[in-house]
Amino acid sequence: MTPLIDGLQYANWSEKIFRQMRAGGVDAVHVTITYHETFRETVLEIEAWNRWFERFPELIFQGRTAADVQRARDTGRTAIFFGSQNPSCIEDDIGLVEVLHTLGLRFMQLTYNNQSLLASGCYEATDSGLTRMGRAVVAEMNRVGMVVDMSHSGERSTRDAIEHSSRPITISHANPHSWHPALRNKSDDLLRALGASGGFLGLSVYPHHLKNGSSCSLQDWCDMVARAVDLVGPAQVGIGSDLCQDQPDSIVEWMRSGRWTKTVDYGEGSADAPGFPPMPGWFNDNCDFGGIRAGLTASGMDAATIDGVMGANWMRFFDISFGPQQARDGHRFHAAG
Asked: pTM above 0.90?
């Protein structure tokens, strides 16, 4: 059996959702634990997850290595891998990269839409690329085994990260801009560069990233998957659904506005509909991954490529990404574990 892995979710977690993960056969999920939180606030989020792991040990546990995906499969549970959608969790202290990796953080975005201390976000008018601190933090993330995620970053910053990182980076939840021109979606040239570097693309099901939004058909999405496979490579594409299940609309204000503005930043939404858009009818929760597999099969994609997209590709990426860096030769490296 092929592992089933989702490369990004930000749900309003509950026993119901954990049980849906098991019903849907989801072996591992990259979970956003922090957006604009400080280091101490991020630790509080980890404490809250520790309580979830304590309450539901038969359903979920904290994942730290690729081997934990197989452990999840062997024990009928879901491995939870921590990630941050903003570098605010390290504040202005590069030493916190290693501390957070020790606590289990395995992914960190260098920006969330705006300019950060590390890079430029996709909503900035000018993208100045990686900053001096950004280059240093990327090197430190490479060293400890934390994945550089450029999902919300601008084009130049993402290209800089690809070129500067000695380990493959990810765009964990975005789609090709040529398929749907959302600000967050990435150009074909950039996706080709991502693929050439060994990087990874997680494809989103979030309506603002989809052609026709909430009305996007499963066939259209599957056609987009085939396009992404051609651009990035069949072994370097997976799902990063960006599922925000059961979140109240009020949480969007925190996601997009944080503490950086006094007004509401609508970001990818609109002033008329500032909350979460309805999900496409074919994907509402973790029970619906089987429908995606069926859709890819019906679209004519071969079984090996489908297995990769559904999770085998992510598992290989976890295996080369989460261990400390032992040796470096350009984009070639050896990872422990």
From this structure: yes
